[in-house]
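Progress note, sequence design subtask.
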């Protein structure tokens, strides 16, 4: 997490989210990074098992533009033969108490299997209707079940447009909404040091310039 924050410290358009629920809550990715793309990071420690990784990855691969597994070498050696080649692999090693080093085994590349319906599933009801209204597609849909609204988006927007709408929606949510809404997302908003006042430095305050 610290490395990701450092990498995006000067980019106010980047939002880092922990435990982001995907596929209607069937799985949660450990860290999601939202900027020009939606990137997921799954973290496994020495004590973790990889028994759930196969089912988790199926959900992640439907939503994220890129994915990276961050884990000790023994996990990566096993995962390297089971994960698709476009997954990134990063080794994490504990040098001393709470001091970690990261080593890239394989950089992530683009996921060509993103599922538009699964991406739309990241949107709240109000956000879906906002998108429909913006494209003038909301006529006669507000009184119908949510599935109809999702289907209308799928019918009229291509995958790239849906990706962009979802990224903008996720980045524009306030901290209060993120905690309270149905996805129960746990987020620790990050404000780059260049945007913090001295009084608020380190406070974890939330601000995002879109």
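Output:
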């Amino acid at each position: 997490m610290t490395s990701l924050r450092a990498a995006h410290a000067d980019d106010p358009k980047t939002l880092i989210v922990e435990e982001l629920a995907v596929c209607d809550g069937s799985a949660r990715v450990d860290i999601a990074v939202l900027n020009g793309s939606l990137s997921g990071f799954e973290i496994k420690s020495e004590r973790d098992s990889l028994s759930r990784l196969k089912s988790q990855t199926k959900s992640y691969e439907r939503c994220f533009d890129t994915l990276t597994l961050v884990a000790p070498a023994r996990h990566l050696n096993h995962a390297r033969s089971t994960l698709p080649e476009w997954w990134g692999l990063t080794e994490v090693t504990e040098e001393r108490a709470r001091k970690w080093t990261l080593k890239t085994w394989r950089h992530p590349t683009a996921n060509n299997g993103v599922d538009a319906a699964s991406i739309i599933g990241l949107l709240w009801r109000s956000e879906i209707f906002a998108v429909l209204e913006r494209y003038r597609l909301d006529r006669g849909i507000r009184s119908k079940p949510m599935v109809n609204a999702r289907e209308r988006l799928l019918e009229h927007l291509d995958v790239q447009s849906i990706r962009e709408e979802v990224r903008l929606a996720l980045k524009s949510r306030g901290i209060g909404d993120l905690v309270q809404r149905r996805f129960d997302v746990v987020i620790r908003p990050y404000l780059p040091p260049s945007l913090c006042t001295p009084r608020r430095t380190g406070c974890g305050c939330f601000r995002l310039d879109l």
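Residues 174-210 have pLDDT under 50 and may be disordered. Work on this subtask will continue into the next period as scheduled.
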